[in-house]
Amino acid sequence: MQIYNIKVDENKRETTNHGVYEFPIVIYETVLEKNVLGFVNWHWHEELQFCIVTKGVVDFYVSENKYTLNEGDGIFINSQHLHMAKPVSSPLNSYICIDFHPKLIGSFQGSIIAQKYINPYLSCRNITAIVLNKEVEWQNFILEKIKEVHKLNYEKSELYEFDIYLKLLEIWKMIIVNVKTDYDNHDRPKTDDDNRLKSIFSYIHQNYMNKISLEDIAKSVHLSKSECCHLFKRNVKCTIFEYIQDYRINKSIDFLKNTNMSISQISYENGFCSSSYYCEVFRKKTSMTPKEYRNLNK
Length: 298
Fold this sequence. Notes:
By secondary structure, this protein is of the alpha+beta class. 44% of the residues lie in helices and 17% in strands. The protein has helices at 112-123, 137-155, 160-178, 192-207, 214-220, 225-236, 240-258, 263-269, 275-286, 290-296; strands at residues 25-31, 40-43, 48-55, 57-62, 65-70, 74-77, 83-87, 94-100, 129-132. Strands 1-8-3-6-9 form a five-stranded antiparallel β-sheet, with helices on one face.
């Protein structure tokens, strides 16, 4: 399964269903160049995420940190942390991704398993991501288990859900045996930066269809314009207006796919000052015109 465009809410929380209530896990392989913008944009979710690069070189950004992974290497991304992925090499870059809710391996709410072996890692603020290097024995063990889970999900033989569940337990056991939590950082309140970033995202998502000024955004989080720009660039790795452009293009794609509105109408509905500028930005981001994209996805 390939996800081409991750849907998020106003706080950048992914709204995609990761599996079903009875089995909350999704397993897929992403070819980054097949995504609408050529990369996986910023988002977060409650699910734990394990990835392994299967082709090329991929930059994973988690909170303020950047991790460059070569083919065969992987990464663990903890619950509720903002992250994104961009290709480094060419022409194609791909990775296997496993997203599963912690409750899948936590037995039941309030269990000793959840209290002792799951929750401390979810609430420990210093564990945002762990790079999995194939040269490190315990990390390579996890990488091999990721491959096995992917194969089980693809083949779907008898008892495959049970076998996947057992593999996830093996993966998590290897994490808790080799990664120590910092108990001083448990349940630490979110920083002002975290809250301000979510406020900036929320402001953009609520106003993207209108003209947005840097002054308005800065006022919404009680910062100067320069402080606001620095905060956003440091954490999101692009400028505020680059992000606004990407968000507007993503929103316009829903109109192209699901309405018969003209290109001109769609451009104005999504905050572009003219249809020609919209077409110019769209082509730059997707390597095709809005009309070509609409025809391709009819």
